[in-house]
Specification:
The protein is 73% helix and 0% strand. It is mainly alpha-helical and 442 residues long.
Length: 442
Amino acid sequence: MLSAERGGADSARAARLAFLLHPRWTYMLVALACVLPRLVALLIERGSILASFTEKSDDFAQVFIQHGTFGLVPGFESASTQPLYAFFLIPIYWVFGRSWEAVGIAQILVALAAALLVARIGRRWLSPAAGLLAGLAMTLHPYLFWHDIHVNREILDTTLAAGIVALTLSVAERRNVRGALGLGVVLGLAVLSNTRLVLLPVAVGLFLLVLRGDRKRMAGVTGIAMAVAALVVVPWVVRNRIEVGCFAVTTDAKALWKANNVNTYETLAHDRRWIDNVPEFPNAPMTPEQAGDDWKVNGRIDEVDECAQLDLYQGEVKTFWREHPGEKLKLAAQATVMLWDPRAFETDTAERTRGSLQSLIKGWVMPFYMVPLYLLSLLALFLVRGRLVALAAMLLAYDTAAAMVFAGATRYRVPFDFLLALGAAATVTRLAERRRSRVTRS
């Protein structure tokens, strides 16, 4: 009788689980978990979304709408930022105006696309249960509640990274031209979104080429993906040569210099300050951002030679690497620790010190979320086999290497945290399967 009761309970539990794991309900649950908390955060933060902590792409979008110039000063084209986020903001401002409602809702939709993509990846290449768990774990990320609704360019990076994972796995499985075309487009957009990803097409291409199977066909579709990625990026690079004076994805080499000089390590080590607190370069030329501020405050228009600054700061970085290799190794180790710190590291000093509820969540709630995610995703390396785990490990290694070259902060890791969510979900479902198997055998 007890056996029959237990069997009935197990059947009812299995029926409820099957209901939740139906694609319709899985995606609906993930969508609700994504949208509802962000709408609440949007209403709470509505007064600060466009008033503080904005990314400079916001200034690019405003100047373009008002003056037709893609830059920070009317009449002077600029390449001092990665362009994709400004391209994202421009049509929003053009159609709906610059309002917290328009920006917040548009970015919630982008976050929703990322969450549904992660759930789809989990369902397709792990299991339906893993898809549901990964989608929920990713979209309930404590840092993203605040981050996704504010003006920040990383909002696009998560969706693009999830698209890269889905398309890479599809190409690896089917070796089809259509998938390669899509992968190339998304890889190119990722480079335009974040110059830290400039070598990601190469990394993804190498990943595909080492897979077993029809090597000749794989080489062909990989070549198509790489060519398309280049075609997406090249028009912007050529535009910069014509309008600004040099071939570059961005001329903002000063950011790289701020992360690579003799003062960087001590600055970052002291009270968790950011690279913006690094002492200025002696007799530093005016940057495009400073020229933009001068125009907004004083109405003065200053011409900036961005290409000369690109050469100056790139040269200084190379000199630092050559003459201070030990210091660079210290910076690389420091950046790795900062990138993977389970606490949220803010890159804005005012944001770190204002003592709000979201600062409390990022500083104290985040570790309780991230540490289990780290441990469970690490276990996936030993419990789960397949291309998804290998691709996730490669992408996380790439993100770490990029931080070692530049600098580490939570905002640079978060776009790839969905990979940890997938790994954790895979571990949980695999352990649950083993437990069920042992119970069945007993």
